[in-house]
Specification:
By secondary structure, the chain is mainly β. The strands form 10 sheets. A 9-stranded antiparallel sheet has the order 7-8-9-10-24-19-18-12-13, with helices on one face. Strands 5, 6, 11, 21, 22 and 23 form a 6-stranded antiparallel sheet that branches. Strands 33, 35, 39, 42, 43 and 45 form a 6-stranded antiparallel sheet that branches. The longest helix has 19 residues.
Length: 722
C-alpha cells in the first residue's frame, strides 16, 4: 500500500521546533555528566574543581536558550490537524505527530509511522502479524493433550467511526457471532482504537460480550500483541533494574539456537551479536506481576525512539495484583496480556456455561512513542516513558472513550478504611497492616480473588497506618479481600458491598486475625507469599542470562531445578529448625531428583528440632502451619517421627498446575494448610517432621514453600516476640 504523508502548516512546524528546543534543554539535564552532577556529591565536587569554566558556559547557554524561547510566541495547539484517511483496504489515523494504519475491516495494526521512521512495526511480516488482538478458546471437552485450544486472531468484519472531531478519532472494528456457527467462538468482540490531538500514541481497548442462550465455551488467553522492527529495536526495558540489549529472533532458530527442556527456552550457540553467545533466552524470564505492569517496551538507540505500552490500571486483569503475566520479550515483541492461565493453570480457564451471559471491557492501554534529539542518551527514554505513565494514571479513568461500557470517574465509586492485624502472640495491641494489599473483587470465599476472572478487581496498597483508599470502582457487587506481609492467610469481609455511581463508602477500622492457636516454637521463612527469602543457588554457568547474574532475583535463571540433584545427589535436604538459616540452607523449591537412567524420584525433606523439659507439661494438639507459594502437579505428605507411617499424618493430595518452576517464577497460587500434630507423636529430645513430595514423572513437579511454623497448644498464651 502507499503511505499517506500529510503536510503540516508552517505554524505547526514552528511550534514543533520550539518544542524541540525545550526538549533539548530538558533532556540536556538528563545527559550523563549533568545527571551525575546533580545527584552525586563526590562527582559534583570533582567537576566543580576541574571544569568550572564548563559549568559557567552551560549556565550561560541554558539561560540564553530559555530567554530566546520565552520571546517566542507558540501558535495555539488547536491548529494541529487530526485526520482520517481511507486507502485501499486500510484506514489511516493521523494527528501530525504519528500515523496509525489499520486494516479495514479486520482491525489489524499494519503500520505506525513516527519521527521519520516509515514503519516501526515488523514490516517484513504479514499484515495480520504485526499488531493484533487475539485469544485462545475451546468448546468444553474438545481440547486434546496436544493442543492448547484454538488461536483466534480476532479478524473483524465491520469498521465503524464512533467519534471524529477536532479532538479525537475513535474507530470500532467488530464482529458478531453467528448463532448458526459451530466453529467460531461464541463471543461478540468490538476492538477500539483512539487517537487524540497532540498525543504521541494511541489507545486501544476491546469489549467482549456473550448473550443469554449461547453455547458453553472456555477462554484461555486474551492479549494484544505488537511486533516491532527487529532491525531497529534492540534494547528492552520492563523496569528500572530489568533492561538490556536483547538478542535477535534469528538467534533462537537452529543452528544459531538450541532448544532446551521446552521450546520457549533456547541457548544461543551462534548469535549474530557474539556478546550473547552461550546465554539462555526465554520469554518467561521477563514475566511481571500485574501490580508492576505499568510501562514496558523497546528503544531504537540509533533513532532515539522509544515504543512503550502503558497500563494505567489493572482493573480488567484476572486474579489480583500478584498474578504474573508476560510483557516484552525477544521479537522484538510487546504484549498486553489481559487474561492468561500462566502461573496458575487450569483454575484460570474462563469457563462459561451453556446460556451464560457476560460482558467485560479489556483496557484501554496506551501505546506511546517518544524520541530524543541526537546527542541525548536514548536509554533515558525509559525515564520519560515513566513520567508519561504517571500522567496516564492521573487521567484514569479516561473520559474520552465512546463506549458506554467504560464508565467515567463520575460513574464510579470509592471505598476507604483502615486494616489492622490482631495477633496477641506478637503484640498486645492491634498492628497497622502496613504494605498490605486490600481489594474489591466478586463475592466469594477466602482467597477466591486468586481464581476470579469474569469480573473486575480493584486493589490498593495500605500505608504505614494501615489506611487504604480504593478509587474509581465500577458499579457492582463486591467483597473486600486483603493479605498482609508478615502474616499468613487472607482477610475476607463477606459483606456484599454495592458500589454505585458517586458512592463513597467508609469502612472504618477492619481487623484481620490471622490463623494462630499458640505461641511459636519455631518458624521457617517469611510469610510473604513467595519463596524469595530461601536459598537460591547460582545457575549452571553453561545456562546463564547475564541480566540476572549476582542478583536477588536470580531465581529467573534457567535450569535451577537441576541444581537440587547436584547439591543433594543421594540424600535429601535436612534442616535444623533450632540453628539453621533458611536463606542459606532451605532450598527454595522441593523438586524431584533426576536419576542416572533419566527418570525421577520423589523427595523427602526433614525438619529437625528438640523439645526440652519445658515441653513436658504441654498437652493437646500442636499446630503445624504450612503456607505454599506454588505447587505444580505435586502432593505434600506430612509425617512426624516416623518416615514410613502409612497413611501419613496429613496429605494435600495432588494439587496445582502452576508450572512456576519451569517458568522461572518464585510464586504461583497461594495455599495454606493447618495440620494438627498430636502431642503423643512428639517426644522429649530430638524430633523430625518429614515433608514428602512423592509424585515424580517430570523435573518440573514440585512445591515452593512460603512459610512454615510450629505452634504450641492453645493452652499456652503469651507473647513470643516483640
Amino acid at each position: 500500500m502507499k503511505w499517506c504523508h500529510c503536510q503540516q502548516p508552517n505554524h505547526f512546524q514552528i511550534s514543533r521546533k520550539l518544542q524541540d528546543k525545550y526538549a533539548d534543554l530538558i533532556m540536556f539535564l538528563f545527559s550523563s555528566h549533568v545527571f551525575k552532577l546533580v545527584t552525586t556529591k563526590d562527582y559534583r565536587r570533582h567537576f566543580l574543581k576541574q571544569r568550572g569554566w564548563i559549568i559557567a558556559l552551560i549556565m550561560f547557554m541554558s539561560s540564553f536558550e530559555i530567554a530566546i524561547s520565552q520571546n517566542q510566541t507558540p501558535q495555539p495547539e488547536s491548529t494541529q490537524v487530526l485526520q482520517l484517511h481511507y486507502q485501499d483496504r486500510h484506514v489511516v489515523m493521523d494527528n501530525g505527530i504519528f500515523q496509525l494504519t489499520l486494516s479495514n475491516p479486520e482491525g489489524f495494526v499494519t503500520g505506525i509511522q513516527y519521527n521519520g521512521i516509515e514503519n516501526v512495526l515488523a514490516y517484513d511480516s504479514k499484515e495480520d502479524d504485526r499488531g493484533y488482538w487475539d485469544l485462545v478458546w475451546n468448546f468444553p471437552g474438545k481440547k486434546t493433550k496436544k493442543t492448547k485450544g484454538t488461536l483466534d486472531r480476532i479478524e473483524a468484519t465491520k469498521m465503524e467511526v464512533k467519534t471524529q472531531n477536532d479532538e479525537l478519532i475513535e474507530l470500532s472494528f467488530s464482529r458478531t457471532w453467528n448463532t448458526s456457527s459451530t466453529t467460531a467462538v461464541p463471543v461478540n468482540i468490538d476492538k477500539r482504537f483512539v487517537m487524540l490531538r497532540n498525543s504521541s500514541g494511541f489507545y486501544t481497548y476491546a469489549i467482549f460480550e456473550r448473550l443469554q442462550g449461547w453455547p458453553a465455551v472456555e477462554l484461555d488467553n486474551i492479549r494484544l500483541a505488537i511486533k516491532l522492527n527487529k532491525d531497529k529495536f534492540h534494547y528492552m526495558a520492563i523496569s528500572d533494574d530489568r533492561q538490556r540489549y536483547m538478542p535477535l529472533p534469528d538467534d533462537r532458530i537452529p543452528p544459531r539456537g538450541q532448544p532446551l527442556a521446552y521450546p520457549e527456552a533456547v541457548q544461543l550457540l551462534d548469535p549474530i551479536e557474539p556478546e550473547f553467545k552461550g546465554e539462555v533466552d526465554d520469554k518467561y524470564e521477563y514475566s511481571m506481576e500485574s501490580k508492576d505492569i505499568k510501562v514496558h517496551g523497546w528503544i531504537s538507540t540509533n533513532d532515539s525512539v522509544g515504543f512503550w505500552q502503558i497500563t494505567p490500571s489493572n482493573e480488567f486483569r484476572s486474579a489480583g495484583p500478584l498474578k504474573q503475566f508476560l510483557g516484552s520479550h525477544v521479537g522484538p515483541t510487546n504484549l498486553a496480556i489481559f487474561h492468561s492461565t500462566h502461573y496458575v493453570g487450569a483454575d484460570l480457564i474462563m469457563t462459561f456455561k451453556q446460556g451464560e451471559a457476560w460482558k467485560k471491557v479489556f483496557g484501554p492501554v496506551f501505546i506511546y512513542l517518544n524520541s530524543f534529539p541526537k546527542g541525548v542518551d536514548p536509554l533515558l527514554l525509559w525515564h520519560e516513558a515513566k513520567n508519561q505513565t504517571k500522567i496516564e494514571e492521573e487521567k484514569w479513568p479516561y473520559s474520552f472513550t465512546a463506549s458506554d461500557d467504560f464508565p467515567a470517574s463520575d460513574q464510579r465509586g470509592s471505598v476507604r478504611g483502615r486494616l489492622l492485624v490482631r495477633d496477641r502472640f506478637i503484640r498486645s495491641e492491634d498492628i497497622p497492616a502496613n504494605g498490605s494489599y486490600v481489594g474489591l473483587a466478586a463475592p466469594g470465599d477466602v482467597g477466591s480473588w486468586q481464581r476470579e476472572y469474569k469480573g473486575y478487581q480493584f486493589w490498593s496498597k495500605a500505608d504505614e497506618n494501615g489506611s487504604f483508599s480504593i478509587n474509581n470502582v465500577r458499579s457492582g457487587r463486591y467483597n473486600l479481600y486483603a493479605f498482609a506481609p508478615g502474616f499468613i492467610g487472607d482477610y475476607h469481609n463477606d459483606t456484599v458491598f454495592d458500589i454505585s455511581p458517586g458512592s463513597k463508602t467508609n469502612l472504618g477500622d477492619l481487623v484481620y486475625e490471622p490463623p494462630r492457636d499458640g505461641s511459636t516454637i519455631w518458624e521457617i521463612g517469611v510469610p510473604d507469599r513467595t519463596a524469595a527469602e530461601f536459598y537460591i543457588p547460582d545457575p549452571n554457568p553453561t545456562f546463564v542470562n547475564k541480566l540476572y547474574s549476582n542478583r536477588s532475583d536470580k531465581y529467573r535463571q534457567y535450569g535451577l531445578w537441576e541444581r537440587y540433584s547436584e547439591l543433594y545427589p543421594d540424600e535429601d535436604m535436612v534442616y535444623n529448625a533450632d540453628v539453621d538459616d533458611h536463606s542459606k540452607k532451605w532450598f527454595f523449591m522441593q523438586v524431584t531428583r533426576k536419576q542416572a537412567n533419566g527418570g525421577y524420584n520423589g523427595t523427602t525433606w526433614q525438619i529437625r528440632f528438640q523439645f526440652d523439659d519445658k515441653m513436658k507439661k504441654l498437652t493437646g494438639n500442636f499446630t503445624l502451619r504450612i503456607a505454599l507459594a506454588t505447587s505444580n502437579v505435586a502432593e505434600l505428605q506430612v509425617r512426624v517421627n516416623d518416615p514410613s507411617a502409612n497413611p501419613p499424618l496429613f496429605t494435600t493430595e495432588q494439587i496445582g498446575k502452576d508450572n512456576t518452576i519451569a517458568r522461572h517464577g518464585i510464586h504461583g497460587l497461594y495455599w495454606l494448610y493447618n495440620v494438627n500434630v498430636p502431642d503423643s507423636s512428639l517426644r522429649l529430645g530430638n524430633n523430625t517432621i518429614y515433608l514428602t513430595q512423592p509424585l515424580a514423572t517430570s523435573p518440573f513437579q514440585g512445591l515452593m514453600y512460603d512459610y512454615i511454623r510450629l505452634e504450641c497448644p492453645d493452652s499456652i498464651n503469651y507473647l513470643t516476640r516483640s
